[in-house]
Amino acid sequence: MQQTDQPTGLAKVLMPVPDPHPDVFDRQWPLRVADIDRRGRLRMDAAARHIQDIGQDQLREMGYEATHPLWIVRRTMMDLIAPVQFQDMLRVRRWCSGTSNRWCEMRVRIDGKRSGGLIESEAFWININRETQGPARISEDFLAGLKRTTSVDRLRWKAYLKAGGREDAAEIHEYPVRFTDIDLFDHMNNAVYWSVVEDYLSSYPDLLAAPLRVTLEHDAAVALGDKLEIVSHVHPAGSTDRFGSELADRAVRTLTYLVGEEVKAIAAIFAL
């Protein structure tokens, strides 16, 4: 089963869930109060934690948590199709949409069973060697299991986003890095980058009124003590062919995560 939908890049069509399928990992848990905004919507930083959590659960149940314990996410694409609401029961499904011998792309679909809410996501995960902290080969038996939901077996990394500068920014603000933001790799956890997106969207609530895609790419780690600045740009419709011809008809907003002059991450936000 191969993801062959076009277009690619920021406007790519995400692989649909192959359901029913024995290799789609399928779990449920309730949406709790720590994961919602003031209106009861499942926040994106909380969704990012759910995406991490089901990945760890799947590793454990497949029997690979001991041999493949460490993964770093390079990119996550998240589509907010409809809001998932407080007190809903989440159905979370995870499956592979592309492989290589050191990394893979994993799809996660989060359904609100009662509210009809829906978040679709795809993340590019790199298997990490504990000693070298570099990419490590995925074992053949693990890889064989991943390939059962996709025939994409030569996945390559290609960045979709370019950083914005301070000189023409719409806004610049500092984002404090807290001790509790730091994870096992001694850098700011992936989910915290999505808190930055939520903070930005809180000033533009109209953006959440329609289906929305947010893509976040990580370039370098943010450490405790770093002075992190968020540099935002608004690219109006008609000027956005730099993001692909499919997006030229809509505005694209970007957030560049900077420490000094070093780019740490970039996010793009646009309506679907």
From TrEMBL:
Signal peptide: none
Acyl-ACP thioesterase N-terminal hotdog domain ranges (all copies): 23-145
GO molecular function, a single term: fatty acyl-CoA hydrolase activity
GO BP, sorted A to Z: fatty acid biosynthetic process
InterPro entries per record: 4-hydroxybenzoyl-CoA_TE, Acyl-ACP_TE_C, Acyl-ACP_thioesterase_NHD, HotDog_dom_sf
Domain of life according to the entry: Bacteria
Positions of the Acyl-ACP thioesterase-like C-terminal domain: 167-270
SUPFAM superfamilies cross-referenced by the UniProt entry: Thioesterase/thiol ester dehydrase-isomerase
Protein's name according to its UniProt entry: Acyl-ACP thioesterase
Record organism: Mycolicibacter sinensis (strain JDM601) (Mycobacterium sinense)
